[in-house]
Design a protein that fits this description.
heterotrimer, A alpha/beta (317), B alpha/beta (108), C alpha/beta (292), A: 317 residues, 7-stranded mixed beta sheet, 43% helix, globular, C: 292 residues, two-stranded antiparallel sheet, 11 helices
Chain lengths: 317, 108, 292
């Protein structure tokens, strides 16, 4: 299809879901499952007069990273904002089920072979969450995906890649939070409530949704890295994401699992303490939190290159 | 209003086969489209199916698709387009791009 | 027959459901929660038909002074972590108990949303709601019966957070003004540019977008509709027993979100989920050797 080498140089932010799916695994190793030729488009959009896509806005399949079978979900933000409907959601669930099956098969071959070839689920998020045209089915699919993430725990890693135009919001914001490891670029955005809704709720003086810099300070990759809500920050290229993914998969599973931010009582205690800290700091802006964590020149952070930022940043202890 | 399905059939003057068994390209973004070509025995015809939210442009589609057939002479291929308000210029560009990519892949 | 709206009456609902006088707020076995913590979430232990259970509910009258967007049953960061902590506490205390003896969790659902604030986004509200869901999924998978009872509002992400991870989900029937949706039909109408009448007509045959418990019932997102307030305790108790029996039988995915997916198909509401998963499974089987 596309030249894999060329994909490595390509901006992750600009890339289509299919380019990301092909580029984040080893060259020529990606097999798409329920691809366009299966024509599994949404059965609900036609009656509502909304355009359909053969893959329902998500590319799903399997590839390899080294010896690891990697089950890929890659969302397409250009198609209805990457929103999750019945088919899109079922494709996500299907990937988790295949990873479970692969895990069981490899586990049956013995512990050594399993560790060496441990499967992984990788999600390249680009979505605002539930697709309103089929909102109920989309919502129910979110619950299934959360359940599948819990079901993967103790078995194989689930890794989030966030660096595309739409970011990762709504229900998919907490799906991403529930993964083991989050890799972002500084252009990636992660949150629950989108900027417009916050503005609507709190007023324009408190939060101006059209202020792009403010939106990035609140939800962007650098901020999430400082907060330890993302584990790794990489440059904006498919190759950079792939390299980070490949080196993560070289770690033992227990190491990857240590990157989680939620999913145990101890982690909930840690997050609850952070929520209490928010009352103490009462930040007007994310910059106040950066300064609190020891970044003296917080105002300069948005302008820094990713490399400079990584060299100098002070993260939440 | 519901999505509408349009069907067109053309016959090339000097029939050329599609270079691959099938190919897919494009994303159904706003003002954009995806297209899938599948080689099949159509007795020298080329068939198009267009799924689009826009109404009242049946003639325009016919002209644009007809122009693509005239310049490529493709035959024995079924073409499916999912459209989301692509302009005729974009449609023609996407079809040409898709064919170019398919030729490149067939050679590679 | 009593038909009265239960919206905003989470605390009263606890009293209607559990054995009289048995609810002990902020207490889970040996553990105690500070009354100041996350006042929008009401947690504690109680008895249902004589048996120990743990209740997690919303309080629409509480205002979280420290988080201005948390009121009227909204789930904020503190609320969500308090709810998650409650679940982990129960799991920890019951870790040695056999499956049928682990305390059931009852979620009484009346929440309009997750806190949509600036501080929440800066500190990561997505983690808070995610944490509670993972805790519930773990509790469900390790043998606790988890029942959700929708008495008022079960809206979008807040329902995902507090409700949709349950083994079984019950809802008061629509006469009680119960609201289950992502968006009201008026908003769907604005987005799709289709008028409400047309959408209502489409919803008759397709429950995927319209607001209301009936549509969620058809999609498998609600197991059973409870039509009398007085029936809530017995219905919940019956479901706890069903869930425990199903888990004891050891069948995978016989409760919870995956089961609700199957239920949605049985009820004719979600017909496309299974074919998609089956197709992917078949396609992977054809190439699996290259990867495993």
């Amino acid at each position: 299809m596309t030249d894999w080498q060329a994909l490595q140089q390509k901006s992750f932010y600009e890339a289509t879901a299919r380019e990301r799916a092909n580029g984040i695994v080893d060259a020529a190793s990606f097999t798409e499952l329920a691809g366009p030729r299966d024509r599994m488009s949404s059965p609900h959009l036609p009656a509502l007069g909304e355009a359909i896509e053969f893959d329902d806005g998500v590319v799903t399949g399997v590839g390899r990273v080294g010896k690891h079978p990697v089950f890929v979900i890659s969302q397409e933000g250009r198609f209805i904002g990457g929103a999750v409907g019945e088919v899109h959601g079922a494709k996500m669930v299907g990937i988790f089920q295949l990873a479970q099956q692969a895990y069981a098969q490899l586990a049956a071959k013995g512990a050594d072979s399993l560790a060496e070839r441990l499967p992984a689920v990788v999600i390249s998020f680009e979505t605002g969450g539930v697709r309103l045209h089929e909102a109920n089915a989309g919502l129910l699919a979110h619950a299934e995906v959360m359940d599948q993430i819990q079901n993967a725990r103790g078995k194989f890693p689930v890794i989030a890649l966030i660096g595309s135009k739409i970011g990762c919001f709504g229900g998919m914001g907490f799906v991403a939070a529930a993964t083991d490891l989050i890799i972002m670029s500084e252009l990636g955005r992660l949150g629950l409530t989108g900027p417009e809704v916050i503005e609507q709720e709190m007023g324009r003086e408190e939060f101006n949704a059209s202020d792009k810099a403010l939106v990035y300070r609140t939800t962007g990759g650098k901020h999430k890295y400082i907060m330890r809500d993302c584990n790794q920050l990489v440059e904006d290229s498919i190759g950079a994401f792939r390299t980070a993914l490949a080196s993560a998969l070289q770690q033992p599973y227990a190491e990857i699992a240590r990157c989680r931010r939620i999913g145990s009582e101890a982690l909930v205690d840690e997050q609850l303490a952070l929520a209490e800290l928010s009352c103490e700091i009462q930040p007007q802006d994310a910059r106040d939190v950066w300064a609190y964590f020891g970044n003296a020149d917080a105002a300069a952070i948005p302008e820094q290159t990713t490399a400079d930022f990584l060299r100098t940043v002070r993260r939440r202890p | 209003m519901a999505l509408q399905e349009l069907h067109y059939t053309f016959r090339a003057t000097e029939p050329q086969p599609f270079p691959l068994g099938w190919s897919h390209s494009g994303v159904v973004g706003s003002g954009d489209m995806e297209v899938m070509f599948e080689r099949c025995m159509l007795d020298g015809e080329i068939r198009f199916k267009v799924v689009t939210p826009v109404r009242g442009f049946e003639r325009v589609w016919e002209q644009v698709l007809g122009r693509f057939v005239n310049e490529t002479n493709l035959a024995d291929v079924s073409v499916e387009i999912n459209d989301n308000n692509a302009t005729p210029v974009v449609v023609l560009m996407r079809l040409r791009q898709a064919l170019k990519e398919a030729r490149k892949e067939a050679e590679g | 027959m009593t038909v009265e709206m239960m919206i905003g009456r989470g605390r009263e609902a606890i009293d209607m459901i559990v054995d009289p006088g048995s609810f002990q707020e902020n207490r889970i076995g040996e553990s105690e929660f500070s009354p100041e913590l996350g006042p929008g979430a009401v947690v504690g232990e109680a008895k249902l038909a004589g048996r120990d259970i743990v209740v997690i509910a919303n309080d629409a009258e509480a205002i979280n002074e420290r988080f201005p967007v948390v009121y009227f049953g909204v789930i904020g960061m503190e609320e969500a972590y308090k709810m998650a902590k409650t679940v982990y506490t129960v799991m920890r205390q019951d870790a040695e108990k056999a499956a049928g003896e682990k305390r059931p969790l009852l979620l009484i659902v009346d929440t309009p949303g997750n806190a949509p604030g600036k501080i929440e986004e800066i500190f990561g509200m997505n983690k808070a709601t995610g944490a509670y869901q993972l805790a519930l999924a773990e509790a469900r998978r390790c043998g606790h019966a988890v029942v959700a009872m929708v008495i008022g509002r079960a809206i979008s992400g807040a329902f995902l957070c507090h409700g949709l991870q349950a083994d079984h989900i019950l809802s008061l029937s629509p006469e009680f003004g119960t609201m289950i949706h992502v968006m009201p039909l008026t908003s769907i109408s604005r987005i799709t540019k289709l008028d409400i009448e047309r959408l209502e007509q489409l919803a008759e045959n397709n429950p995927v977008f319209a607001a209301g418990p009936d549509f969620f019932y058809r999609l498998g997102g609600v197991d059973e509709m409870v039509t009398e307030l007085e029936d809530m305790p017995s219905a919940i108790n019956r479901h706890i027993q069903e869930i425990e029996a199903a888990k004891a039988a050891g069948v995978a995915d016989c409760t919870g979100p995956m089961y609700h997916g199957k239920l949605g198909e049985q009820r004719g509401g979600r017909m496309h989920r299974r074919p998609v998963i089956e197709r992917m499974t078949a396609e992977f089987a054809a190439v699996a050797e290259q990867y495993l």
